[in-house]
Each structure stands twice: as C-alpha cells, then as structure tokens.
Design goal:
- Two copies of one chain form a homodimer.
- By secondary structure, chain A is an alpha/beta fold.
- Chain A has a single domain, classed as UDP-N-acetylmuramoyl-L-alanine:D-glutamate ligase, CATH 3.40.1190.
- The first copy, chain A, contains ten helices and 15 strands.
- In chain A, the strands form two sheets. Chain A has a ten-stranded mixed beta sheet, sandwiched between helices. In chain A, strands 4-2-7-8 form a four-stranded mixed beta sheet.
- Chain A is globular.
- Chains A, B: It is an enzyme of class 2 (transferase).
C-alpha cells in the first residue's frame, strides 16, 4: 500500500457559469464537489494505475465529512483523523475562457489533534511500501512537521516523498526523505540564488537523498545518489496544469516502490505529469496522452 | 410558535476577497457560512424579536447537515426533513465595492420525500400560531405545493403567509392563504398588465385574503378585507436589500399572531424591512434603524 498524507484536505468545488456578472446574481449551471488536496490527487492517480493506496491526514466539520463521503464514492480508502474545525474548500468559478480560484484559509489544528494524527500515522506506516507527504499545512501545524513525518518513515525503512513549499520545504531535508519534489519556483524560494541544479544539490546536502525539480514544459531535473538526470518533453501539452505535479509525484512513488532505475522513474513521472495537464480535473490524467508521450521523453 | 417553511434550504457562504483576480488564484480573507433560505431568515428575525419559532423544510447531504448545525449554533429550533440529495449552497464573493452572487441549482426531491415532509408539516401545525411559507421550490416539487400547504393550514385554522415568485405565486391564492406577499416585480410577472393595486385585487379574487406588495423604497401596498392601505417610507435606507423582504414578512407574521390592525402590522413590517437593509447579512436587522423609522412611516 502507498500511503498519502494530506494534512490540509480540501473539498474542491467547481462552478460552471457561462458569462459571469461580477456585480450581480449568477445561476450556476453545473456544480462539482470532489475531495482534494495534493495527497488525495496523488492517491487518485495511483489508484487509477491499479495500486493499493490509503489516504490519511486531517479532516473536520461538515466539509470534512463531505471530503470523506467523496473519497468513499470514489473507492479511495481513507483513514483521516478528525479535527474540530471545519476543513477548507477551494472554489473554481469557470467561465468560458477564464477561471477564478478561491482558496479558503482552512482550519486551525490543535496540538492534541496533531498528536493523535502522529499516532495514527505511525500505525499506518506498518503496512506502507512508500509514503507521499504533500501539500500545504493547516494553521497550528509547525513547519517542521513534514521533516518529522519523513524521519519517522525513514526509521521504519519506508521511503518518503515530500512535495511542499516555503518553510515546510526548507525543513523537509532534515527528515532525510528519499525524494524532495519542489517545482522550480518553490526551489528558488527555498534556496535563493543559483541554478536549479545548485538548489537541488543544496537540499541534498541538507539531508534529502534525491531532489526532483519539476519545470513544467521544460521537464524534470533530478539530482540523485546515482547522478544528475534531466527529462526533456518532446512537445508541450496544453490544458489544466493544476494537479500535474501530483500526477508526477505519483510516478515518483511508483519508482520508489518498484526500486526502478532513475531514468525509468523520471520518464514515467514526466509522462504522468504531462498526461495530467491534458485532463480537465486535478487528480485525473489522460491515458492516451500518457501512452503517446511516455516513449518520447528523452532522459540524459 | 411561528412555523417557517423552507423547502429549498441553503447554506449561504460569503467570501471576503479584497481585489479579486477573476482569472487567477485568490486567497479568501474571511469565510462565513450560515443557514439560509427565506424561511430561515424570517425565523431569525422573529427569534431576535423574542418569538418562539420552528424552522421546517427539506435538507440533505453534507450541505444539509451544515445547515442544521448552523441552526443549532444560532439557537434556532428546526425540524427539517431529510432528503437524499445534497442541499444547495449560495455563494457571495464580496470585493470592496461589488458582490457577485452564485446560486447553485439545488437538489432534486423525490415524491416520497415530499410526502414525508407533508406528514411532518401537518404534525407541526398542531402547535403553530401562524405559518410562513416562502422561497424557491427545489426540483421535483410541484408549483402547486405552496397552495397545498396554505390550504392544509387554513383547514386547521392556522393563518399562512406565502412569499413566492413565478408559478408557486400564481398558484398560492388557491390555498386561501391569509397573506400573499409578492414584491412589485413578482406581482407584475404573476399578473401581467395593470397597476399593483389591480394585480393585488386579482390575487384576492382568486382566493388570497390579503395581498401585501413590497415596493422597496416606495413602501408597501396592502389590499385587504378591511380596505387598501399604503405604507410610505420617510427616507431611504441604504445597504443590502437581500433579506429585507424576509424581515418584512416576519413583521406580517407578528401582525397575524397578534391579530393587530392592518395599519399597525404594515408600519411594523415596513420598519423591519428597512431595518434589514441597514444590516449587512440577510436575516439580521438594525434595531436602531427600526426604532428610528418605525414611528415615521405614514400609513394611508
């Protein structure tokens, strides 16, 4: 089983509104509600590829229950720990040509609730082949938490991938994770100045076994114990980049579980990322795009 | 107890977003979630005036549970009947100067669920001094339903107020309600051509005991068995007109329960409507505005 951690699980709501009146009343023609958060998206991709997954993290209030209900409906096993505060929603208002995204501030987590999650997390690691730790932290959760989760996994011999931004990313290497996956902008914020390769080396120097930098249409850069690799995309896939990073991380998790060589892992991860851009909803990927682009990705 | 019926109960969500990027990502600075729907707003006003109220109607899914939770938190007693589909949310995105409102399509109600509600409604009427039937109908509920609810109340000697639009408004007089309360536009749609007074007379002719037409800053027109009255506002209150009609209806319900003379009822209803405009949220009213404007309203 691959465990995915989503401490700030969300209910992703999409409103289809043809021709929005931004100062009036709008009838929403279609509403979609779906469990989200980066770890949930990773689990969706892995499940679609036939892998056993388990979604864990924190969820509370009516929005938390809606998240759990959607996970059940999607057939994604979950073991989310309860919090008292209401989980966050994200809203995308989609007009024909443009989309406005609204991110709610999210819940405040108490020390007891986080401690309770830690106990659950340790128990779930017992049957995990790999763990993916990704997304934002809710308020009240210290920025060192991802490093701590990675360290606990490392002690148990479970490879961990951390996909984070800001302070949680800066702290992540301290937990000696198998992979840290920032995108180029996140890396530049965490390690200012220097090239992506230098930034990645810096994170490795601080404890990360490997650093994979996603660079959108420019592919991937991986700095690993086996050397430095790049994955170059043969063409640009147009669509919705939201969730592409999660699909890519799912590919990295597969590589860890299968102990695949880095070039194979990177090719699959890059192809899954591109295939996710072609799918309209985060957590989905287009199998046809995946099949087409996978063999054409050049690893050097 | 005054019973309020909200067949299409809603969760009213407000996002405060200073400076919206309508084609990008926005951080929501404040989120408010509150049970809504016109009957709920009426109940809030009545409860604030110290009246015993009971909220009934239909609610389902995670959104329905959030509605019930908020009613409990607000101390508003409720007996909502369960439906399988998810209740609707409404979303107001508030920038500094303007607000975009998004109305979800709402749930589909089954025949069995409506029948179950009818049974509950009859039982609740036993202790009701008056019933307020207001707002939109969810899909699957016939447009004659408000007439039917009013007729059942009439049989039991419980005075009913219907506040509706479109087909439900056109059907309402068939149930011989004590009061039908359209605004001027709703009345013009239901009875096209002619003055508001003629339209109101027409609805009385079809069975309504009294018709009160709300005309915003122009006050009220009431065509009743005791004659025709107008309530003229001494000045225009600026603010948020959403919920003003519900506050006004609360005033009409008080008049029914107290068997007050029409001029007193209309003065109070018009003052409550104006005081609601001065409050930022539907279901609230400004007591200072109420106290100031109430004695200045001219009834003729």
């Amino acid at each position: 089983m691959i465990l995915t951690v989503t401490l700030n699980a969300a209910l992703d709501v999409t409103y289809q509104v043809p021709g929005v009146d931004w100062d009036g009343v709008n009838r929403v023609s279609e509403v979609h509600r779906r469990a989200g958060g980066k770890g949930v998206n990773v689990a969706r991709v892995l499940a679609a590829l036939g892998r056993e997954v388990l979604v864990t993290g924190l969820a509370g209030g009516p929005t938390g229950r809606a998240i759990e209900r959607d996970l059940r409906a999607a057939g994604l096993p979950s073991a989310l720990c309860a919090i008292a505060a209401d989980s966050r929603a994200t809203l995308a208002v989609s007009e024909r040509a443009r989309t406005a995204l609204f991110n709610e501030p999210g819940p405040e987590v108490t020390t007891d609730e986080l401690r309770n999650f830690m106990t659950t997390y340790e128990a779930l690691l017992a049957t995990a082949q790999a763990v993916v730790i990704s997304g934002s932290l809710p308020r009240g959760v210290p920025p060192s938490t991802y490093a701590r989760l990675a360290a606990i996994a490392a002690e148990r011999g479970v490879p961990a991938i951390v996909d984070a931004d800001g302070e949680p990313l800066r702290h992540a290497p301290e937990g000696r994770p198998s992979v840290v996956k920032p995108n180029a902008e996140e890396l530049a914020r965490a390690v200012p100045g220097g090239t992506p390769a230098e930034g990645a080396e810096e994170l490795r120097g601080r404890g990360a076994e490997a650093v994979v930098v996603s660079m959108g249409a420019d592919g991937l850069l991986a700095v690993t114990g086996e050397g430095t690799f790049t994955a170059r995309m043969p063409y640009t896939v147009r669509g919705n980049p939201t969730g592409a990073g999660d699909s890519l991380v799912a590919g990295l998790a597969l590589g860890l579980v299968e102990s695949a060589p880095w070039p194979d892992t990177l090719r699959r991860a890059a192809a899954l990322g591109a295939a996710a851009v072609a799918a309209p909803v985060a957590g989905d990927f287009d199998p046809a795009v995946y099949a087409d682009i996978h063999p054409k990705i050049v690893i050097t």
